[in-house]
What does this fold into?
Amino acid sequence: MSLSKISQRLYSKWNIVKVSSLINTLPNVPRRVFSSSDTNCARKPDWNKAVTEAEKIVGYPTSFLSLRWLMSDEIANVALQLRKLVGSNHPLLKTAKGLFYNGKNNMQAWGLIVLLVSKAAGQAPGMPDMEIDKAAGVLHSQRALAEVTEMIRTSHLVHKGLVNLQPPIVVDSPSDMIFGNKIALLSGDYLLSNSCVELANLRNQELVELMSSAVRDLAEAEFVGLRDLQNAPLPARPKSDTKDYDVLIADNIEPLAVGEAMGNAKAEWTVRHILNAGSLLGKSCQGTLKLAGHPEELQRQGYLFGKHLALAWQAYLDREPFTPGSFGSFSLISAPVLFALQHDPSLYDFIEKGLDNVEDVDYEQVRERVMVGPALELTKNLQNDHSSAALDMLRKLPDSDARTALQNIIAAMQD
It folds into this structure.
């Protein structure tokens, strides 16, 4: 590569850094409420420490925001185009900010978890030395799968930044919104297409089928239940009959039975977030064990670990907007809201005001009603149940630094 080409790419990388700095100073970028991984939540010091220590175990940070990706022309061009959106109200800016700043909601940790599971489980006997990254203790294919996981998740979040501009919706600065939609659509498609290429290069048909089903689940999550005009999710009307609903099916390639869960607080929350998060992380953990040649039973345990970890993570995030002193909007399909609706169905009258736009909901009244009932305690129990289930799966792996790092990440989510 010529010196001029390297200089040009370094200049592009500097532009990315400048974009992130500009985004960080925006005072009034509106917060679009999503169900997972894009909520602003307070950090605990031991979370950052747990992630930092875990990254050392697998060699280096796993995020696609590594030098290899920052130096690519396509990513640099997207960053340059993002500068044109600074000062507008496009939700893509919120997603872009999440790519640069850490916290419990960062998508970088997803690839990290996949690599930690890879290292904790090791490889089956007879794996060729050429396939193993000796420094990190994982297979090269497992590292590629971790990057695929991050790309799929990030492309999903970027695509969720699209704004509905169809009449009768009226927005400020429609030209900025149209331009932002083009960037969100094309950059999300770019990441998703690259993840498909990386996945195909692994030359494992069963893994391709498994990860394809995870992408299907992410897409299905965007069509579950009621939506406002901007596709923000609304909860189903609570049912009086709350019979148990088993969302674990024998073959996790098959779609979940969604309809039966709607209106049942725990079942609805579980189905929504398995589709939106648990499926991808669980199947990535299952896939990385498949690449290492482990038996199907251990692969199944890997899926359950990833699923329970994602759900525990989501339950923790759902509790954050209901801490004392909190204000502003929050997800209307979070566990505390769904449990509060089950406890007091009259709360649904406030939710129905958001059928056209979730911003029409009186969030402070909903927050007050949620905080006086049993919903927060039920959400805490839900988080503890999934955390305990994830830890139970971990105990089936041999003791190692990687397993300890995963345990520390789970512990960092606890009160």
User: Anything to note?
Assistant: Residues 1-45 have pLDDT under 50 and may be disordered. Residues 174-201 form the longest helix (28 residues). Residues 8-19+35-412 form a domain with the Farnesyl Diphosphate Synthase fold (CATH 1.10.600.10). The longest strand covers residues 132-133.
